[in-house]
Specification:
Blueprint (H helix, E strand, L loop, with lengths): L4 E4 L4 E4 L8 E5 L10 H21 L4 E5 L6 H12 L6 H22 L15 H13 L3 E4 L2 E4 L15 H7 L14 E6 L14 E3 L1 H13 L3 E7 L3 H15 L6 E7 L2 E3 L2 E2 L10 H6 L4 H10 L6 E2 L2 H20 L4 H9 L7 H8 L4 H11 L9 H9 L9 H5 L9 H19 L3 H13 L2 E6 L2 E6 L13
Parallel strand pairs: 3-4, 3-9, 9-10, 11-13
Antiparallel strand pairs: 1-2, 5-6, 6-7, 7-8, 11-12, 14-15
The chain binds adenosine-5'-triphosphate and zinc ion (ZN).
Adenosine-5'-triphosphate (ATP) binds next to helix 1 and strand 9.
């Protein structure tokens, strides 16, 4: 079995990954706040942790991985859009309009991330569906003295958790010295953070022992991870910008709510996508969305290729030169497979025959802390194979990397002509000719076998022989009329 090595941000070391339960490997990734389109930076964790999800599924089996990624749908910016729509005369209650806005943003997010070849996580919880779990977790923290209520708020007391700051390597004293924010009068310590806060009357809120209000952002992830993955699970991931304070606060809450359990074993953080040396972010305004690129005609797999060309723990830029290079490489790769008759039929024959196996070296490189660029270099070597059968590890590697999600798409991806549609009766004729050719070969009637091969060639039928089986597809020059009157 391939050993996966992961760099754990919490220990600052790379170590072999050993799941708590190999029959159910559990991973939580912090998902988006669904108030607007995702920008290209937001797509980086999605693509990177999609590779990890696929790798875990390859190593431990697809039914043995649970991947949770949440939607944060409690947010002032979602409320603002809904309020504006209401003011402009939109029908429905404010709650409905808020829910509609989240639904709309989630649908965009799905469409954009699907286009990048990212698989949907196993579970995608919405924070608003888990408020009860958040309230119980906060009640537990108050009861055990790790949190206190003040003026309708509930705050986590960082002094009650001596390990606070361990993940990001900061001490509470340094944090206080470095903080420039104005401290709310109800906080006992300036670093204490909000678990629950009051909701204004005109905004959505939920009943709680501390009055009508809503959860803080950090408790959402702690509560959903606990409900869906348990008190201790394998991997927790997100962008480096979340390490402090978001992940530090998640650890404090979860470890205090479930003492002795440990929360996540491994922490992974992707570095930032940058624009001229600065994090691409909504607040800086230096962003463009995934949809902007797709609309400009940049294919999703090209965006994915560029993302994966840089190691996830290094900052990276998006440049047009990288886009062009990725496009040329992918075209070349898909063209090779197309020329060797690859398509849904060929792939399913290879899979059924058990010939769809990953190249061990490719897998080993990828498993080394997700060395995606190294894995792509290995794919380049594998792409040099000369026959359809020997190209199988290359094709399987492209699928594992998520560059191909539908083998019927190869024509589009290779930039070749579209594969012509074929009627069922014409297809039956082609198959009869292929079967007759196989029978002629079996009978060692080489002249007849050659004649049938030429007929198929002339009609533009591309036949790929894989061991005992043949698959076929119409080439761009396919001409059904040349099959008339033949059997
Ligand atoms: N420039 C970036 N590069 C890589 N990852 C990023 C970048 N910006 C945000 N992320 C990641 O995107 C995910 C979604 O984050 P979130 O929804 O909080 O972003 P946001 O607040 O909408 O964006 P911004 O950070 O631009 O304000 C998080 O895992 C976060 O770490
Ligand atoms: Zn989170």
């Amino acid at each position: 079995m391939t050993t996966i090595q992961l760099y754990n941000t919490a220990t600052r070391r790379k170590a072999p990954f050993e799941p708590i339960d190999p029959a159910n490997v559990r991973m939580y990734v912090c998902g988006p706040t669904v108030y607007d389109r995702a920008h290209l930076g937001n797509a980086r964790p999605v693509v990177v942790f999609d590779i990890l999800f696929r790798l875990l599924a390859e190593v431990f089996g697809p039914d043995h991985v649970t991947y949770v990624r949440n939607f944060t749908d409690v947010d002032d910016r979602i409320n603002e859009t809904a309020q504006k729509r209401k003011a402009a005369g939109a029908e429905g209650t404010l709650e409905q309009l808020i829910h509609d806005r989240s639904d709309e943003t989630i649908a965009w997010y799905h469409a954009d991330m699907d286009a990048l070849g990212a698989l949907r996580p196993t579970i995608e919880p919405r924070a608003t569906e888990w408020i009860g779990a958040m309230v119980s977790m906060i009640e537990g923290l108050v009861a055990s003295g790790h949190a206190y209520a003040a003026e309708g708020h509930v705050l986590f007391s960082v002094e009650s958790y001596p390990e606070y700051g361990a993940l990001s390597g900061r001490s509470v004293d340094d944090m206080i010295a470095g903080a420039r924010v104005e401290v709310a009068p109800y906080k006992r310590n300036s670093m204490d953070f909000v678990l629950w806060k009051p909701s204004p009357d005109d905004l959505p809120g939920w009943d709680s022992p501390w009055g009508r209000g809503r959860p803080g952002w950090h408790i959402e992830c702690s509560a959903m991870a606990y409900e869906l993955l348990g008190a201790r699970f394998d991997i927790h991931a997100g962008g480096m910008d979340l390490q402090f304070p978001h992940h530090e606060n998640e650890i404090a809450q979860s470890c205090c709510a479930h003492p002795g359990e440990g929360f996540a074993d491994v922490w992974l953080h992707n570095e930032m996508l940058q624009v001229e040396g600065k994090k691409m972010s909504k607040s800086l305004g230096n962003f463009f969305t995934v949809r902007d690129l797709l609309d400009k005609g940049v294919p999703g797999e090209v965006i994915r290729f560029v993302m994966l060309s840089t190691h996830y723990r290094k900052p990276m830029d998006w440049t047009d030169a990288k886009r062009a290079e990725a496009e040329a490489t992918l075209r070349g790769w898909f063209g090779i497979l197309k020329a060797h008759g690859y398509g849904p039929q060929t792939v399913s024959i290879l899979k059924e025959a058990g010939d769809w196996v990953q190249d061990p070296e490719f897998l080993g490189v990828l498993a080394n802390d997700l060395n995606t660029s190294g894995a792509m270099a290995r794919l380049h070597v594998l792409s040099k194979a000369r026959t359809a059968a020997k190209l199988a590890p290359f094709a399987a590697g492209l699928e594992l990397m998520g560059f191909v999600t539908d083998w019927a798409d190869l024509a589009r991806l290779s930039g070749a002509d579209e594969t012509p549609a074929v009627d069922a009766d014409v297809a039956a004729k082609v198959e009869a000719l292929i079967a007759a050719r196989a029978a002629a070969r079996a009978a060692k009637d080489w002249a007849e076998a050659d004649r049938l091969r030429d007929v198929l060639n002339d009609a533009g039928v591309r036949v790929t022989d894989l061991g005992g089986q043949a698959s076929w597809e119409p080439g761009p020059e396919f001409d059904a009329s040349k099959l008339e009157g033949l059997t």
